[in-house]
Amino acid sequence: MNRFKVKRKIVLLGDSAVGKTSLIRRFVTDKFDDKYITTIGTKVTKKELSLVRDDATIDLTLMIWDILGQEGYTSIQAKSYRGADGVLFVCDLTRSDSLQNVEKYWLSELNKVVQDVPAVLVGNKVDLQDEITVSEDELATFGRRLDTPHFLSSAKTGENVEKVFMKLGEVVIKSLGPLERPPDPASGKEVRNLKDAADIIMTEFAEGYGDQEMAMAIIRTQFTNAGVDIGNPDKGTLLAAIELLGEAQRDVRPAKDIIKDIMRWKAMIEKCG
Asked: Which of 240, 245, 241 is closest to 259 using CA atoms?
């Protein structure tokens, strides 16, 4: 069976306190924190899945964007929508207005930036049975209108959380075109000097981070902070830069993977130096 590696950006959209952050935490770490958290700006989390499409196994890396859930912050939210490959719309089953706002605000604002993005609709907090005001029939009707699969979930108990994200992964890879093995620009490249090393470091960092635009912005910032001269990089500044790059990805990649990259990059730099 053919095997492909794919990275895709997904965004979680919904009103404040519907449980977006808790759903991500439950899915990524299998932990629930019932402490009230308001996400300021955007946080990106990484999760890897293995899915099958046609005759291929797809190792799908989801870059999960948890976006500020307050209405009115349209400019900062719009920046986060760009490049989205999938959307998880989240409402709170105990607040019917949060379901209406999925279409009224979140879908409306999303469509100003990107259209026809594969989506899944989830009604969260199904564990609060005595407080529920949105029925499953209402959620299903709403999902049909948006042409999305729908789920009831609980970040607190874990009910259906994995199914929600797996379904989102499935609709994302279903939307992919023909599967072709992309060239790996770093693979097999001869490292003749520190410029070659810097090229590979930048390429691998962007690949691991998942979002090319954001990764390049981080690289520019951290290379500048470390004093790297792109035209003529030296050993000391490159070593400083990779430490800064490691710090910059603490929230989106496992620590062991970051350390492994840094050790490999250090060895490559030392060999050139």
From this structure: 245
Closest CA to 91 of 76, 106, 109, 77: 106
> What's the DSSP call for residue 224?
H
φ, ψ (nearest 5 deg) of residue 63:
-95, 105
Count of residues making up the chain: 273
Bridge partner list, 8: 62
Task: Characterize the bridge pairing of strands 119-124 and 86-92.
Answer: parallel
Instruction: Strand 56-67: give its sheet, edge to edge.
Output: 42-53, 56-67, 2-13, 86-92, 119-124, 150-152
On whether the CB atoms of residues 92 and 125 are closer than 8 A, the answer is yes
Q: Are the beta carbons of 11 and 88 closer than 8 angstroms?
A: yes
Task: Give CA angle at 42 (202, 165), nearest 5°.
Answer: 90
pLDDT per residue as tens digits for the range 81-100:
988 999 999 999 999 999 99
| Of 146, 154, 103, 106, the residue nearest 126 (C-alpha) | 154
The tokens for 74 are 């349209």
Read off φ and ψ for residue 99, nearest 5 degrees: -75, -45
For residue 252, the 8-state DSSP code is T
The strand pairing partners of 3, in sequence order, are 57
Per-residue pLDDT reduced to its tens digit, 42-93? 678 888 899 988 778 888 989 899 887 888 878 878 888 988 999 999 999 9
Residues in the chain with pLDDT < 70? 1, 32-42, 178-190, 210-212, 273
Among 59, 42, 41, which residue's Cα sits nearest to residue 50? 59
